[in-house]
Amino acid sequence: MNLFVFGIGYTAGHYLRHHAGHFDAVAGTVRSADRVAALAADRIRALRFDPPDADPAIAEALAAADALLVSVQPAEGGDPVLDHFGAAIAEAPRLKRIVYLSTIGVYGDHGGAWIDEDVRPVPESERGRTRLAVEDRWLALGARSGREVAVLRLAGIYGPGRNAIEDLRDGTARRIDKPGQVFNRIHVDDIGRAISAALLREGAGRAWNIADDEPAPAPDVVAYAAKLVGIAPPPLIPFAEAELSPMARSFYGANRRVSNAAMKDDLGVRLGFPTYRDGLAALMQEDRSGIPAAR
């Protein structure tokens, strides 16, 4: 199976570091020229795509792909991948499966209630509405071109280099207290498990929530990270007094507990890190030993 990846950033890059060897050939896009050489050392053919600039060889690589992973955020007004390459994707002669990485942010606020994929998304922000519209465009492309499209709605991503332990060490960790507020999370390794499952599954054409088992208050996560590091946690800051960017404040406006039952029962994903405690403890162990936890 040949894989093409739009957007080799944190999540897709992590996936390729651990799973690229499962494919016959891997190609994908990056935004900067310096990443091209770095990925070539890992036998990944990297092509520059920084809209509106695009390497002409992307269309050729798409034509050779059996599977497509899309990890590019929407731009203002739409999806740069579909806008530039929608026709080439629809006509790619070998392409069978497409996995599009979205976000649980499309659901909007549900007052802390448990929700699953049967709940109608009600995004309040323009960002969420755009993302939902892009999901629909990918599913529509699949329906009219005969491709199997899986939309993976990711919870808050953490993993090596991007977690509460690192935030404590660089002095950016805060414990913002908004009673009743919880957030859903997912370790980047478990995203990889979900991507592989979706690429292999026949009969897609729908969305799955990709989240761990335990939605939790953000202050609890920071406190646990502090315990692992062996320091006192930062003091609680009342939400009303916290200095937050408009985007950060909008995250606190959406409170929901996202079910991952379909991910487990339908996609067959078994989480390596079912809770933030499992994930942070493994990251701390990796940091001390220099040896990655079992993937």
TrEMBL record:
Pfam families: Epimerase. Transmembrane segments: none annotated. Keywords: NAD. InterPro entries: Epimerase_deHydtase, NAD(P)-bd_dom_sf. Residues 94-211 form the NAD-dependent epimerase/dehydratase domain. Gene3D superfamilies: NAD(P)-binding Rossmann-like Domain. This is SDR family oxidoreductase. It comes from Lichenibacterium ramalinae. The lineage of its organism: Bacteria, Pseudomonadati, Pseudomonadota, Alphaproteobacteria, Hyphomicrobiales.
